[in-house]
Amino acid sequence: MSTSPSTIDHILSRVGGKLEVTSRKMFGEYGLYLDGRMVAMVCDDTLFVKALPGTIACLGEHEERAPYPGAKPHAVVEERFMAGRGRLAELLRCAWEVTAEPKKTKPKG
């Protein structure tokens, strides 16, 4: 099963204008990016963030499960959490802070 584009629209609307979060489709699912860093995944219409101390502190009580077969467990972000004013933006900001900057690739040639 893959994620519906309407799910991505809904999640991005929950972030509001507080952050410039973009999405990128990959393998039928989506990655969410903030300032060039992947901060979350949406798989099977479910929002996931890495279960790291910084994100867990922002998220609070949560369920963990693998977003796709073979993946490490990630924290599930439930709709009730996203409904809180500004909470999703704060969580994605926390995820940005604990996520490594993407490695620069050297041009071929």
Chart the SSEs and their pairings:
Blueprint: H1 5-15, E1 21-26, E2 29-34, E3 37-43, E4 46-50, H2 53-59, E5 64-65, E6 74-77, H3 79-82, H4 87-98
Antiparallel strand pairs: 1-2, 2-3, 3-4, 4-6, 5-6
Helix pairs in contact: 2-4
Number of discrete domains: 1
Helix/strand order, N-terminal first: HEEEEHEEHH
Quickly count the helices. Answer: 4
Overall 3D geometry?
Answer: globular
Distance between termini? 39 Å
Search tags:
109 residues; alpha+beta; Yope Regulator, Chain: A; 6-stranded antiparallel sheet; globular
Can you offer a commentary on this structure?
This protein is 31% helix and 28% strand. With 109 residues, it is an alpha+beta fold. It has a single domain, classed as Yope Regulator, Chain: A. Strands 1-2-3-4-6-5 form a six-stranded antiparallel beta sheet. The radius of gyration is 14 Å and the shape is globular.
Brief synopsis:
The chain is α+β, with helices and mostly antiparallel strands and 109 residues long. The chain has helices spanning 5-15, 53-59, 79-82, 87-98; strands at residues 21-26, 29-34, 37-43, 46-50, 64-65, 74-77.
